[in-house]
Amino acid sequence: VTDSASSPSTVQLRPDLTTIPVYVPGKSWPGAIKLASNETSPPPLPSVVSAIAEAAAGVNRYPDNGAVAVREALAAKFATTVERIAVGCGSVSLCQQLVLATCSPGDEVVFAWRSFEAYPLVALVAGATPVRVPLDNEHRHDLDAMLAAITDRTRLIFVCNPNNPTGTAVGRSALEKFLDAVPPHILVVLDEAYVEYFRPDGFDPEDMPDGVAIGRDRDNVIVLRTFSKAYGLAGLRIGYAVGSPQVIATLSKVYIPFSCNSLAQTAALASLAAQDELLARTNQVVAERERVREALLSAGYTVPETQANFVWINLGDSTEKFAQHCAAAGVLVRPFSSEGVRVTIGDPDENDAFLAFALSEGATSL
Ligand code: PMP
After folding, report:
1. At which residues is N6-(pyridoxal phosphate)lysine found (predicted)?
2. What interface predicted TM-score (ipTM) does this complex get?
3. For ligand 1, what atom is nearest to the CA of residue 194?
4. pLDDT (tens digit per residue) in 308-333
5. CATH number of the domain residue 352 falls in
6. 223/97 same-domain check
7. Could you read off the pLDDT of 108-134 as tens digits, one per residue?
8. Ligand 1 pocket, residue 159 CB under 6 Å
């Protein structure tokens, strides 16, 4: 029995959590054109919706904790084995599991900055230390600087390829050179959430990075992919990791039981069955991305070449004003304070609405 006079009167929470920021998702409201979260604009295919509806009748039962059917379908897709595949509640959950699987408190997680907002958060929640390595002047990964940031506390390196929010990509040869230089006890996570939007145009086809192929013979490489973007299932939360069986097996120890739900698993299977149709949709996104980028460049904006389903506009101090005026015009983009905005490529009409604002005198004179 504790002495109530000396014990605190409020719940004792982890003190370090008070300094960890909360993940802030892109905002929206009914009627707004939301180009803030890198989702796909078209709804899921009818075949996927009916598979979800059918599976809904079985949600009185728990999902398959091992997601075996999805992992088998992915193993067939990548000509590999199920032992090399883990499924998670979105790839963001796998980011957290990978940090929990590799880092003890005080260990370091290296990543480029800016990059995906969740990397520092999942590191901090695990008690690890985020190490941010600035992007180069062209908004690309500075792989040499990332190598130089490695210490004897480094346990994990995230390489987001293409990078969120800048859309810039690391080519295959640069990536392989980097991986050759990373000590084999450090896990490198190639986060390929947007890989389906890679196109060789403006990019040497021989140099197309494919993490799954690159990681096949490297035990310290894990590739992350998701059904949230090109596969259009952001609302259901399912992503996957491909890599060495030893790392994959350890991910199940830090998996929240049943967190990848049965509707998500069913939808992922139905989407893999329709992947040709879904991947064909990415062609329009890529064509629109080039159209939007060209229009922005002609208007004098700085927009790096992008291999993702979004563009980055470097705006410096005008960032907040640009995003606010854009929202007032009914289009929501994602501002990154004093740096720039990330604009998701939507349907042609949505992109036109964004360009009508971005090319207006009010925006270009900000
Ligand atoms: N990685 C990157 C680079 C992302 O941009 C995102 C989503 N914004 C994710 C991972 C997470 O995606 P999800 O959890 O929906 O699979």
Report:
1. 229
2. 0.99
3. 3
4. 999 999 999 999 999 999 999 999 99
5. 3.90.1150.10
6. yes
7. 999 999 999 999 999 999 999 999 999
8. no
